[in-house]
Design goal:
The chain is an all-alpha fold. 62% of the residues lie in helices and 0% in strands. This is Heme oxygenase.
Length: 186
């Protein structure tokens, strides 16, 4: 199954990104959170723009998985000026070479909604951030997160393309997030 292969093949890059993620730090400030949102936007927006250019099969429900607008909404809610895209001083998002790499990117982006549930609960306690105010990105699918993830996994497991292209896209995406997070002061 492709989902199991992806999890195994991207384990190191995934762990690297999790270790760099400052959002669960008990000392997180609103200013640090805003910096994080800007850095995430600098990765998510260009990757989602590329995904929209690819022939992603309808079974993946791409239009329901796009979250860059939620990052913009969160920045506006927090009265933070949104950055000019792409964000200056930030590493460029990788260029996806085709559908396989696009599906790998979508695997990472969609997988992050699972961790977003934990992050969302922490933000509520630490900064009084809610899904309605400053935390829409981390609450993207709300109670439907598990069902959305399972539907994505089912579609990916049925995909008959090159599995290593999907792995390459996922690792490129994890790398882009790691590069961005290295620039976010904790």
């Amino acid at each position: 199954m492709l989902m199991a292969h992806l999890k195994q093949a991207t384990r190191e890059r995934h762990a690297e990104v999790e270790a760099l993620m400052p959002v669960l730090d008990p000392a997180l400030t609103q200013a640090a959170y805003i910096r994080l949102l800007r850095q995430l936007l600098g990765v998510v927006a260009p990757l989602e723009a590329q995904l929209l250019e690819l022939p992603i099969p309808a079974a993946f429900g791409l239009e329901h998985r796009l979250r860059a607008p939620l990052l913009v909404r969160d920045l506006i809610a927090l009265s933070a000026p949104t950055p000019v895209w792409p964000t200056r001083g930030m590493p460029a998002a990788p260029r996806l070479s085709g559908l396989g790499q696009g599906l790998g990117t979508l695997y990472v982006l969609e997988g992050s909604t699972l961790g977003g549930q934990v992050i969302g609960r922490h933000l509520r306690v630490a900064l009084d951030i809610t899904a309605e105010w400053g935390g829409a990105y981390f609450h993207a699918h709300g109670e439907g997160t598990g069902a959305m993830w399972r539907a994505f996994g089912e579609a990916l497991n049925l995909w008959e393309g090159d599995a290593e292209e999907v792995v390459a896209g996922a690792n490129l995406t994890f790398g882009a997030f790691a590069d961005a997070l290295r620039g976010v002061p904790a």
